[in-house]
Structures are given as C-alpha cells and as structure tokens.
C-alpha cells in the first residue's frame, strides 16, 4: 500500500487510478508531480504504475481470452447457401 497511516488511502488510490487512465507510462516529471499530489515518493509512484500496468495487462489478456471463446463462428454459417 502507498500510505495507510494517514487515512487518505482511498483518495490516493482514486487519484492514481485517474492518472493511470490518462497515461500508463508517466515520465519522471509527471511521476514527481503525482508524488507531490499523493504525498509519497516518486519511487513509490513508479512501482505503483509498474504493478498497475501488470494488473491491466492481466485483465486485458483475460478479456481477450473470454471474448474469443464466447464468439461463435456465425460468419461461416451465414455464407453457406
């Protein structure tokens, strides 16, 4: 966790998720800005983004697998006379 001691963890997480939706790969300057807003070190921001990207890739992979297995080959059925 980023910082459970100060009681603002949900707000920190909300801000980080918002920033992640804007940019999955923030540069050093953006990480410093986010760190200042959230109240943690830029290093922790970098690690959070690495972990969040890994989670995002895992979810996307699961979605792709789920979508491809749920689709039926209707195009070949429709093209038959």
Automatic annotation (TrEMBL):
Keyword line: DNA-binding, Homeobox, Nucleus
Cellular component per GO, a single term: nucleus
DNA-binding region (UniProt annotation): 13-60
Protein name, entry field: NOBOX protein
TM segment ranges: none
Positions of the Homeobox domain: 11-59
Broad class of the protein's primary localization: nucleus
CDD domains (alphabetical): homeodomain
Any coiled-coil regions, as ranges: none
MF (Gene Ontology): DNA-binding transcription factor activity, RNA polymerase II-specific; RNA polymerase II cis-regulatory region sequence-specific DNA binding
Intracellular or extracellular location(s): Nucleus
Tree of life domain: Eukaryota
Gene3D superfamilies named in the record: Homeodomain-like
């Amino acid at each position: 966790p980023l910082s459970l001691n100060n009681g603002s963890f949900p707000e920190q997480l909300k801000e980080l998720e918002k920033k992640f939706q804007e940019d999955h790969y923030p540069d050093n300057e953006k990480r410093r800005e986010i760190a200042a807003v959230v109240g943690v070190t830029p290093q922790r921001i970098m690690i959070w983004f690495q972990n969040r990207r890994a989670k995002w890739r895992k979810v996307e992979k699961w979605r792709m697998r789920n979508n491809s297995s749920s689709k039926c080959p209707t195009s070949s059925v429709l093209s038959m006379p």
